[in-house]
Write a structure and sequence with these properties.
The chain is α+β, with helices and mostly antiparallel strands. Among the domains are: about 220 residues, FAD/NAD(P)-binding domain (3-Layer(bba) Sandwich); about 110 residues, Glutaredoxin (3-Layer(aba) Sandwich). About 30% of the residues lie in helices and about 30% in strands. The protein is built from 13 helices and 23 strands. The strands form 4 sheets. Strands 1, 2, 8, 9, 10, 11, 17 and 18 form an 8-stranded mixed beta sheet that branches. The longest helix has 24 residues. It is globular. The N and C termini lie far apart (about 50 Å).
Length: about 500
């Protein structure tokens, strides 16, 4: 065995959630070992969608522009009957969102991961180790010890915290003995990813075909790709579904022969699951290790990156001695309701789509068409989770727990986050009380002149002289600058606000 490596945080799993968490921790001056059992990035498409909040997180680690260059903003997400009538529409998702980025963006996951890995390569605080397989973990008085099987033999890592970002079959979760809550959705689907040769012959929007004979998904993706998903019928096996002849028959109605070429085929079981614990001592779960959702709302990867954004600053503050360990307990308190809301939305969509009884499907179509859910009257713009009801917030103050917007300059060349910088912000009309742990931003500060009007308007809407914005860009609370500073200090110290 090689000598023990000492670090602050060890992350198991270097997919998009693990790499994002590592980069966010590095911004917090945290030393990270990022370990993955694979030698290289998985080369084929998996996740297909990120929303505006996720792009803003990528902006914070210097990766947004490169990721967006290979993505594609969407216009509509339509649910259709078998005959093509519009049942439900999620529209306006290409419009500018509260973060300033397009609300909904289709991606090519390997391209996203490559961008994040490139940033990691330039980040000295992160040590990326590939072909490292976690074999054991144990808690200690000062943190955790993890053992890895590596090409050079067994390696011991001692860290203050360990985070499992190692996917749906999480070794970290299994070794920690954490159980999953089953939300009662289990459907087998065939996923077909294609390379696009002639985009003019493909749909220009995302589609759910609510056909009881074969529920089908058809969505755009980034980097010149398109995806179809076909629900399997009872009795159809994965082996049968993956046969090229079977796939060719499913694709015939789309009339795309010659317009696309097959890149990947796989059979998945779409699940809805949430871990009963997200923390066990010094061990945390994030991403698919903590929760799994059917893909209908496009929130699987988004939820994982939100986990990373929520957890990173809290780990950073605790490691620097600026916050009580109890701050880390707010991670699940805040994230679990968000995740549950996203899964419930996906389940609503999935249960709308996955009706295979003809009479039940006809009744669904009739009811939805009579209610006029389609025709652009459904949900519009950016999807958002509920405000935090509890956690590290100033409960009772206006907008506490809600998402704080990011104004851009009119010429789109400057963004608030880039100017104001990392860490928590205390934004006040006149600067107000200052704190050593807070970046105080006054509306008369020349640096934020391009955003001052938007910020003043937000304060007017919420009736406060100041707002305290957390590092993950959620609102701690509103009120007077002095009172917010005091309440923040109490909250991170684990005292009642």
């Amino acid at each position: 065995m090689a000598g023990t490596i000492e670090t602050d945080v060890v992350i198991v799993g270097a997919g998009p959630v693990g790499t994002t968490l590592a980069l966010l921790l590095a911004r917090e001056s945290v030393r990270v070992i990022l370990a993955d059992k694979a030698a290289e990035i998985y080369p084929l498409p998996r996740a297909a969608h990120i929303d505006h909040e996720i792009v803003r997180v990528f902006q914070s680690v210097g990766a947004a522009e490169a990721i967006m260059a290979a993505s594609k903003a969407t216009t509509y997400y339509d649910f259709l009957t078998a005959s093509g009538e519009l049942l439900m529409r999620f529209g306006g998702v290409d419009q500018t969102s509260p973060s300033g980025w397009p609300a909904s963006n289709m991606i090519h996951q390997p391209s996203v991961e490559a961008v994040l890995r490139n940033v990691i390569a330039k980040t000295p605080a992160i040590r990326l180790q590939t072909e490292w397989t976690l074999t054991a973990q144990s808690g200690t008085d000062g943190g955790v010890v993890a053992l890895f099987d590596t090409p050079q033999g067994e390696q011991k890592v001692r860290a203050r915290f360990l985070v499992g970002c190692d996917g749906a079959r999480s070794t970290v979760r299994e070794q920690a003995g954490i159980e999953l809550e089953d939300l009662d959705f289990d459907e087998p689907w065939l996923v077909i990813d294609t390379l696009v040769r002639d985009p003019s012959r493909l749909p220009d929007r995302n589609l759910q075909i609510c056909d009881p004979k074969r529920p089908t998904t058809c969505v755009l993706m980034g980097s010149g790709r398109h995806r179809w998903e076909f629900m399997l019928k009872p009795g159809e096996t994965a082996e049968e579904a993956l046969d090229d002849g079977f796939i060719a028959e499913l694709m015939k109605p789309w009339k795309v022969d010659g317009a696309v070429t097959l890149e990947r085929k796989a059979v998945y079981r779409f699940h809805a699951l949430i871990a009963r614990q997200w923390r066990k001592g010094p061990v945390f779960l994030a991403g698919d290790a903590a929760h799994q959702t059917p893909p209908f709302a496009g929130q699987g990867l988004c939820a994982g990156v939100r986990d990373a954004a929520n957890l990173a600053w809290k780990l950073g503050m605790v490691l620097r001695g600026e916050a009580s360990d109890s701050l880390l307990d707010t991670y699940r308190t805040e994230r679990a309701p968000h995740v549950r809301a996203a899964i419930e939305l996906a389940l609503m969509m999935g249960r709308t789509v996955c009706i295979t009884d003809a009479a039940a499907a006809a009744a669904r179509d009739k009811a939805m068409l009579e209610r006029g859910v389609g025709g652009g009257s459904g949900s519009r713009g950016a999807l958002s989770g509920p405000p935090f009801a509890a956690g590290c917030i100033l409960a009772g103050s206006d907008a506490a727990g809600s998402y704080f917007p990011q104004p851009w300059s009119r010429d789109r060349t400057a963004r608030l986050d880039d100017v104001a910088g990392p860490g928590p912000w205390l934004i006040a009309r006149n600067g107000g009380a200052r704190s050593s742990s807070l970046a105080t931003v006054s509306l008369d500060d020349a640096r934020i002149a391009p955003f001052a009007a938007d910020l003043a308007r937000w304060l007017d809407q919420h009736g406060g002289d100041a707002v305290l914005v957390r590092p993950d860009r959620y609102v701690f609370g509103t009120g007077s600058a002095g009172a917010l500073s005091v309440a923040w200090s109490k909250a991170i110290a684990g005292a009642p606000a």
